[in-house]
Fold this protein.
Amino acid sequence: MIVGFLTGGDPVTGMGHVFRCLALAELLRETGVPVVFVMTGDEVASALVRERGLGPVLRWKDDPLPDGRWDALVVDQLSNDPALLATLKRRAGRLVVLDDTGLGHWVADVAVNGLYRCPIPRPAGNRTVSVGGLAYLAIAPGFGAQPFEVRPTIAALLLTQGGSDTYGLTPCLLQELRPWLARHPDVTVHVHTGPAFHHEAALTAASAGLPVVQHRRLPDMAGFMAGMDVAVAAGGVMACELAAVGVPSVLTTGEEKELETTADLARHGGAVDLGRHGPDTGQRLAAALDDLSSAGRRRACSGAARATVDGQGARRLLDLILGRG
């Protein structure tokens, strides 16, 4: 048996697609199933796959798939061309699409929308297995298994906008945190930037005079998150990783699609949703952090977050990919 992944990432589309596929591929490796990655986007995404040692990494071309039939092919890209998916479906025993919100959703054998709902109704006679919700979000199971302790006070604040920070919000948020940090001199800001982050100059300028520690390549992301007392993050895959660990989070994003996820997490009490970043975000961010200064409030948020994202979504997805669900 062989499972293929067609995905990619870059500073514009982000890196969440790649990290989801990595979580699935590592579970497949544990079961002895070989995988092959076919990559679009920047070389940085391909390098990330190679670093994990997860099988051959091919580049997308006119005919990217090797000759022969794949047992399963997972396509993790938004709104794929239905004609392309129909072609790929003929080459795969099972075609699985992740977070396809377009017509391609109904071309696949299995369509899983962990983050973004598909607004297109099921066509008459369609037999696609369609599931959705945060229970099917593919993150590494280690996030859900990571112990987390709510400490009496906030000493470590994580600031991140995911693997790329498409909208360059990390430096903006750091500047907006200045008044709050002036009132909380014992707090250190841990800024995490992903492999496709490209706003280094702005981040350096925004960090001047602040208690900031920058992190880029971390071997144990779950363990790193567990060392944080609160997080300020976007609404993509990393927000769900934080929820699985139990880190109380304040969420704001520049990406309209991510508003679904921030609202879902907040509705269950697992995060504070500030919505789309705007002129009043700094003031609202300070108020949210003041609210989370209470250990009791953070404890409630942490418990709700872990109940909402249990970290087992990748295993549920694996059953669907392998035809066991």
In short: The mean pLDDT is 93.
